[in-house]
User: What shape does this take?
Amino acid sequence: MINEFSVFRSIDKINDSTHLIKVYSPSIAASAKPGQFCNIKVSDNNFPLLRRPFSICDVNGDEIHFLFDIHGEGTRLLCNKKNGDTLDILGPLGSGFKIEGDYDTAVIVAGGLGSAPFPFLIKKLPANKKIVSFVGGRSKDLVLTYGLKNVFTATDDGSDGFNGTVVELLKMELENFSKNKIRIFSCGPNPMLKALQLFSIQNNYDCQLSLESAMACGFGICQGCPVESADGESYLLVCKDGPIFNADQVKL
Amino acid sequence: MINEFSVFRSIDKINDSTHLIKVYSPSIAASAKPGQFCNIKVSDNNFPLLRRPFSICDVNGDEIHFLFDIHGEGTRLLCNKKNGDTLDILGPLGSGFKIEGDYDTAVIVAGGLGSAPFPFLIKKLPANKKIVSFVGGRSKDLVLTYGLKNVFTATDDGSDGFNGTVVELLKMELENFSKNKIRIFSCGPNPMLKALQLFSIQNNYDCQLSLESAMACGFGICQGCPVESADGESYLLVCKDGPIFNADQVKL
Amino acid sequence: MNGIDLSVNVGGLKLKNPVLLASGTVGYGNEIAEFTDLNKIGGIVTKSVSLKPRKGNPPQRIVETPSGMLNAIGLANVGIEKFITEKIPFLKKYDTALICNIAASTVEEYVECVRILKDEDAIKAFEINVSCPNVKEGGLEFGNDLKAVGRITEKVKSVTDKPVIIKLSPNVSKISEFAKVVKQSGGDAVSAINTLVGTSFDINTRRPKIKNITGGLSGPAIKPVALAKVLEIKRNSDIPIIGIGGIMNWKDAVEMMIVGASAFQIGTVNFINPNAGLEIISGLAEYCEKHNIKKISELTGSYQI
Amino acid sequence: MNGIDLSVNVGGLKLKNPVLLASGTVGYGNEIAEFTDLNKIGGIVTKSVSLKPRKGNPPQRIVETPSGMLNAIGLANVGIEKFITEKIPFLKKYDTALICNIAASTVEEYVECVRILKDEDAIKAFEINVSCPNVKEGGLEFGNDLKAVGRITEKVKSVTDKPVIIKLSPNVSKISEFAKVVKQSGGDAVSAINTLVGTSFDINTRRPKIKNITGGLSGPAIKPVALAKVLEIKRNSDIPIIGIGGIMNWKDAVEMMIVGASAFQIGTVNFINPNAGLEIISGLAEYCEKHNIKKISELTGSYQI
Ligand SMILES: Cc1cc2nc3c(=O)[nH]c(=O)nc-3n(C[C@H](O)[C@H](O)[C@H](O)COP(=O)(O)OP(=O)(O)OC[C@H]3O[C@@H](n4cnc5c(N)ncnc54)[C@H](O)[C@@H]3O)c2cc1C
Ligand SMILES: Cc1cc2nc3c(=O)[nH]c(=O)nc-3n(C[C@H](O)[C@H](O)[C@H](O)COP(=O)(O)OP(=O)(O)OC[C@H]3O[C@@H](n4cnc5c(N)ncnc54)[C@H](O)[C@@H]3O)c2cc1C
Ligand SMILES: Cc1cc2nc3c(=O)[nH]c(=O)nc-3n(C[C@H](O)[C@H](O)[C@H](O)COP(=O)(O)O)c2cc1C
Ligand SMILES: Cc1cc2nc3c(=O)[nH]c(=O)nc-3n(C[C@H](O)[C@H](O)[C@H](O)COP(=O)(O)O)c2cc1C
Ligand code: FES
Ligand code: FES
Assistant: This one.
């Protein structure tokens, strides 16, 4: 975990609402793992007060990439950065995806901005793994396939790919894969993760979920980001114990 | 008084620390008088919360000009504006200089950033008035003569012009003018204004002072900007009753 | 706006919409009228008026703080006589409810002020300021004393039939106790909150930035506190509440109504955006339309807990 | 830093500098140690520990507000047993004063906790949290009750010789009354302030953004209130004060000392800048040098009013 004053390098629009920013941040880039995130100070003053957490979308040499939509004031300010601006970043934070193990196919399941962590994951997966990606969105222009491989899409309104949720699509398509040889990596809105969690547990799939939560610190000192453990006995911290959890670890 | 969403046109450095900004603000420009000021929202959000007051430095057609130094967060943000940005301005505010009357020579006395309102005053003075300007600063690079005429300078360290305060310089030089035919227009730090006030009252000079004060609203609703009346019986409001006062109107 | 009923009734005070301009933040209306159409505003609460004119505190009176400001104006006002002869005639011209805010240093003085003003037709209600943090007498001495607040309410009610609103101090442990006392003593509504006591010092001179040493904190910084106080009152009493504190836009206003306010006042925002009241009114109407709310009063206390 | 003495003594608690990390904002030190050198910090106040482990409140526990944040963590902690076996050993490794913050729901429980911990050499002082706004029992029930605070102070003092600091609630009318009671009851210092009660609602769902409904407001927004409370205590009592609330940088820290703090704690800023403590220490030293202050303790209460 490093607090690095990074240099804003570029911003590009991926589609109407989504931006990709590239930041020169050599120390964080050197130690980052897929599924980890950074907590970014989006302004030079105390407004907004808190940092904003973003998944590491990709690492390219000394650069880290982030993928985001304009949501509120913080992302609006981030979007107005100019090349050369300094960006105060804490990272890499959190646990990251477990990549090692005995599986043939990495099944990526992403909803909306949930596609963000996967370009980096795909880059880091061992070369012998097959990859298939299921991506959902409300409509065609909200389906984010940036940096993904072998993509199947689903939209709520049927404007692209399967007409329905990405988890419904997954259920149908998974029949084509042999159960014991896949591992699911997922990230997206809570209802999607919940449906996927249920499905994975019922069917005994090996499945990792990337969770979100309101956060203050992002590294375990504020206790602001709890998620209930599966047994209901304690709270885990999304920022430190996660954001990646096994599907059977948490109660959503 | 208008609340005008103006367009940031340009920013130039006048010297090491002083900036001149030009803003397209046709309605305010059309009704502005010398000595008035504007209250400017320096950001698009609630940080900083309050507007920042600045003297109208000049009006050129549809444009208003402001002259300022970077002082704190507000002026720093103002300085980072880009051409084309929108600037939310309330103006023109306050009383303005009294220009009409029976005098031959307008004597301008300015200290530091106090030079700001005078380019516009000089432009608006009747053509038959003579103009002479006394400008002080701590050292040579802090003497602001932008837009002034017939300038005499004074510096605390003697690095430019007279070695001493601008009021001391004025006292010496005024002997060359016939007392009843001059009017003093002044703006600058409080100690300068105090010295000038004393001098003018003792010698019966016709003298106007431009005051500063902490301000919230800038147009008379918060009562945050009082200055005691000369008789000590009441408070006047710098924003509404001033910022221009006759030297015998107020207690500094 | 199509057919959405924005009108509210706060303890007998009828307003065409719930937006009031807070005491001390619009003077007597004349200056702000240059920037906004007062005819469209629900009501104006005048700067606290006292029996005799008050000069107010010496400068510096205000200072900016993170997302807020401190003020110690010291209840500067023209006094009740000039208020009647000079200020009411101007305010009368507008089609907006006039609420007269009164400050005093004794119970008798509150009563005296209301007695003098009660027959002024233009005045639709009285707001009794028992919570100004910036004056030596009256102010918080009363605001933090349950019995004093009860007595003031009772005495003031005994001389007027107009709605009496008591403006409560947030600088107490249990504001709902005060609201209950107001209710028991015959008060028609409470307004909450006045400013929080705060201070700020210059680290070079080591002097207070505000001459009065402490001032009252207002603005967005105090919004969470104001919301909690209003919610506390709503959950513990059934007196109508006028919510105040940190409202900058229509979203803040909706939030204030959800936690329990029947109407609300905007203060500090007037200094920054003198047209905020009108913008809030149209924001409220749009919100109601979107959420299929026919009467804005349905919002009051509609929290889902 | 040349020869400036940054050390302070707060009611018997000796610190190498006045910078403490506030309870609940650094856990038990291990995570923040990755970003900053704890050996340079004056002291660490541990997350409130209670007799039994506490799970804490369900999510959502925090929300951002203008220049502040609300939290309702609910005193989640490992309990005193694990604290001794797992946390103290780690904290011992650092050359910084360890102050153990204790939360409880009865007077007896406070005493019991201190009794269990009093012989832990590593613990240099106890901070008694009588002011947590986010739990049902204990917390503000005590913090707003003069007698309870007096009793707790007395009983806790009777079982330990180590300095006892009582952490006061700002949600009261006269905080100085509480400071006086602590002094009379044998307390060594007070720390002020804990968070202000606040809330925030989602205007679409009309639900509280924080599951606990209300939370504690911290951060720059509350700095003016914290300064006013510390000043009030300083002007009315001679008990040493640890100032807390909204400190983001060395300037805020200097301001806090000027109004009366002998030492101070930084909380919310740790989430944003985990190295803030060290930056504040060097800022303080530079300030002292510039203002020709030989001992930083000269700053305490050096206001010019
Ligand atoms: C581990 C993690 C990884 C994330 N990765 C990405 C990513 O790669 N791309 C992306 O676009 N977004 C991501 N998010 C969500 C992102 O943090 C929010 O979109 C962002 O904080 C919104 O800030 P704002 O100021 O624009 O919005 P506002 O709504 O104004 O923010 C107000 C407050 O709410 C918090 N908040 C708002 N939305 C969320 C959210 N969805 N999750 C957590 N806190 C929120 C903010 O942090 C802030 O404190 C991630 C969140 C987490 C926890
Ligand atoms: C009528 C009037 C005309 C002015 N004209 C000019 C001008 O033409 N050029 C120029 O450079 N400055 C001018 N000033 C001063 C200018 O308003 C301040 O420099 C500016 O507000 C500083 O803001 P900041 O955020 O950079 O500083 P900060 O110190 O961070 O501001 C903090 C707070 O203090 C207030 N403040 C700080 N300095 C002053 C000051 N000198 N007077 C009043 N309030 C202050 C700010 O408005 C703000 O509320 C004028 C002030 C007034 C009242
Ligand atoms: C400059 C100023 C002056 C005020 N004067 C008064 C007053 O005379 N009487 C009163 O009852 N409240 C007064 N208030 C308090 C406001 O009416 C309001 O309660 C407070 O500012 C909180 O609302 P806000 O956050 O919207 O400003 C004043 C507030 C400010 C900022
Ligand atoms: C997330 C969070 C958790 C906290 N937990 C505790 C706690 O367990 N015990 C306690 O006494 N104070 C607790 N506090 C209060 C802080 O110690 C401090 O008094 C308060 O945050 C004000 O300081 P600040 O503005 O610097 O944050 C907590 C504060 C925050 C923000
Ligand atoms: S965000 Fe602070 S502990 Fe997780
Ligand atoms: S600045 Fe508000 S009255 Fe002058």
